[in-house]
Amino acid sequence: MSVLKYCFCLFFLQSIMTTLPPLPLTRPKLTSLARQKLPCTPKNLARAQLIKEKDDIDYYLEVNFKGLSKEEVAAYRNSYKKNICVDMLREGYHKSFTELFALMERWDVLREAAKVRSIFWLQKPLEEQPEKLDHFYHYLTRAENAERKEYFEDVYNNLYALACYFNTPEDKWVRNHFYERCFKIAQLIKIDGGKKEAEAHAHMGLLYEEDGQLSEAAEHYEAFHQLTQGRIWKDETGRFLNLLACESLLRTYRLLSDKMLENKEYKQAIRILIKASEIAKEGSDKKMEGEASYYLGLAYLAAGEYETALTVLNTYGKISTDLDDDLSLGRAYEATAKVLQSQGEMKEAIKYLKKVLKIARNNFQNLDIVRASTMLGDIYNEKGYYSKASEYFQQAFDTTRELMNMPLMNETKVHYGIAKAHQLMLTINNCIETADITSLDHLLSWKESRSDIAPDLIIEN
After folding, report:
1. How far apart are CA 145 and CA 153, in angstroms?
2. How many angstroms separate the CA atoms of 301 and 266, rounded?
3. In Å, how far are 63, 72, 148, 326 from 67, measured between CA atoms?
4. Cβ within 8 Å of residue 435, ≥6 positions away
5. pTM over 0.70
6. C-alpha angle with apex 22: 18 to 27, nearest 5 degrees?
7. For residue 191, with 0-12 CB atoms within 10 Å meaning exposed, 13-18 middle and 19 or more buried, which class applies?
8. pLDDT of residue 396
9. Rounded Cα gap, residues 86 and 236, in angstroms
């Protein structure tokens, strides 16, 4: 197009030139021309006026600029979305057009549905996002061209590129669409030993996991794990696919076991966590193996199998010690203390909880301090050692004040208040029962000031 024609179109069509950064994408002539302009007319023009304006433009161009082709006029007159679709059909990419058109329709439906649910819906219409339309055109047409030649690995790569491009919170449904397309294409790739199929299973597992369909996710992750066993395949970040498969399976099995434990399906939960533990050992990752032992130990605790729970948690503690991982060791001690508390072994439970407190303080883990102090306070309160219980509940309360965690602060404040009330009640009751001059003085002094009264001397272990 000559400079004169170019300037005339800008002036006559009343549009402003928009300079966009060039993309390394393939564009045919029509969309390349269309990229040089914004919509030619304001959106609020009446349809009759718009038609008249377009007719006037065509007539004027035909009379005064006979060298300007219809497609050059169309590039300025039509929307960018329409130009993309026309180019696809003109170049013979009918499958790409069909897929893009279906995605655009769904895009509009989702936008309208979101608009009804929330006034803060800010997603732009697709026709106002030329970068996304460019990516659709570039990769869909390349994928269709490769599919005609049965280059299925190229098809997969182009579809996966689209999935990665749309991996944003607002466009996740587009990403999932291309994950599903990749999964179907991966079944046809026979030259890579199953690597693409394994990756496709991983993507489908993630898709179902994010949707909360954990059983379906586990099926795909199991296939992912099976296909990567004995392989040294790596992803784009250099991580071994088999290790990723183990991690994904463990995460999904744990989520499944949590639901089973909520429904008191203890045997099923233990069975699936044993399976997770075996897979963790295959992954040759000690930290992952320790995590699997931890959750298995908690499942045995929930099922009331205390001795087995202690054995498994002891394994977790040894792994944590070998790894010099204090935080994991603290978790192992805390879980062990819960088992011992359930068995009625309060002295042993107290020993482990004091170890937890020491580790938590050394590593500035305030939430761990709160949990351990609260557990110690509960044990002492239950044993009737109210002064000691008050001491640990106060530690928990003071720590929550540092955290500025209001819900947790209120909870620990209630525990602290109850322990202080028990302590006061016991002291006053002993004073009344003793009925001597000293006790009477204590009671009268307390009644006048309502301050703390000296606690009764009780041996507290």
Report:
1. 12
2. 10
3. 10, 10, 37, 79
4. none
5. yes
6. 100
7. exposed
8. 93
9. 36
Token pair belonging to 165: 């491009």
pLDDT digits (tens, 9 = 90+) for 385-409: 888 999 999 999 999 988 888 889 8
* Tens-digit pLDDT profile for residues 2-61: 434 444 343 333 333 333 344 455 555 556 655 554 444 444 444 444 445 556 656 655
Asked whether the beta carbons of 284 and 317 are under 8 A apart, the reply is: no
Which structure tokens are listed for 121? 């819906």
- Block means of pLDDT (10 residues each) for the chain, 461 residues, are 40 35 53 51 45 58 58 68 86 92 88 67 76 92 94 96 92 94 94 94 96 95 94 90 93 96 95 94 87 96 96 96 95 96 95 96 94 94 89 92 88 87 76 76 70 51 43
Q: Each residue of 249-277: pLDDT tens digit?
A: 999 999 999 999 999 999 999 999 999 99
